[in-house]
Amino acid sequence: MIWFDPATADTSTPAAAPVRFVSGVMGDRTEWRWLSHHVRPAFRSVALVRAAKMFASRQATHVVAHRTAASVMLELAATQPWRFRSLTLIDADMAPALPEFTDTALFQAGREARRTARVFAMEGDAWNAMRTMVDFWYGEGRWAQTSFGLQTRLALRAGRLISTYADQETHELSPVDLAGVVCPTLLITGEEAPVEALAVHGTLTDALPFAQPMFVSGAGVSSHLTDPHIVHPAIREFLVRAEAGWQGAATELRQAA
Questions:
Q1: b vs e for 189-199, b when ≥16 Cβ sit within 10 Å of the residue's Cβ?
Q2: I need a surface site. Which of 95, 117, 133, 135 has the fewest CB within 10 A?
């Protein structure tokens, strides 16, 4: 299901290329408010609340996705490449979809966190299920520092988050699948992100043909929210280059032999 946010839809420049923003389970349309303004008027922007298998429009778009939305967008980009002008992934939370890459100690903590959260959810304890995942991604004790209102909103999404991880396990992405993502791809994460996030970032950098990695100094996850002065201009520059067909100096073009 795709939800469009009229507040972020720019209709003043109909000729501009579209950019769609896709949130993961733990995000919503508000996380894109300032980035969507930053890319205008060069691009039309429409926020999508959650990841979906299909877009409502057949027009090729630039896509910016966060966290668990990454695996769905990569699957779509591999199977329907004509839909994508470019793809930007922020903190791709998709280790369960990468079994050929993730059977290492780097992913042990994440596997244990997801397993613990699943047990809590099966016992009907959504609060501790989400606490487990928030503390894993944002740092031990971060849940306790979160407002009660936000804790409540996140706890209501615990079942959907567990289902998303289970869905990733049944929609695995192989090296061949990832090699089929032929659009320019910007990968963003913070230097202080969890080990698993950094490992997924490195895996995708190596596996995607036209990947451009970006590390945000001093940041953890969600750097588009914590460090917008760095991330927003970088995304806008990437979109401009991708739309113009330019390759950034950091992008390695990989050709088949």
A1: bbebbbebbbb
A2: 135
Q: What is the mean pLDDT of the chain?
A: 88
What proportion of the chain, given as a percentage, has pLDDT over 90?
77
Model confidence at 59: pLDDT above 80: no
- Interhelix angle 108-122/195-207, rounded to 10 degrees, is 120
Radius of gyration of the chain (CA): 18
Measured CA to CA in angstroms, residue 70 lies from 139, 152, 183 at distances of: 21, 25, 14
Nearest alpha carbon to residue 72 among 160, 215, 172: 172
Which residues sit opposite 45 in a β-bridge? 19
Mean pLDDT for 43-58 is 69
What average pLDDT does the segment 68-87 reach? 94
Residues in Cβ contact with 33 at an 8 Å cutoff, skipping those fewer than 6 apart: 7, 8
| Residue 47 three-state SS | strand
Backbone angles phi, psi at 72, to 5 degrees: -65, -40
Q: Which amino acid is at 11?
A: T
Strands 84-90 and 185-190: parallel
C-alpha closest to that of 173 among 74, 102, 105: 74
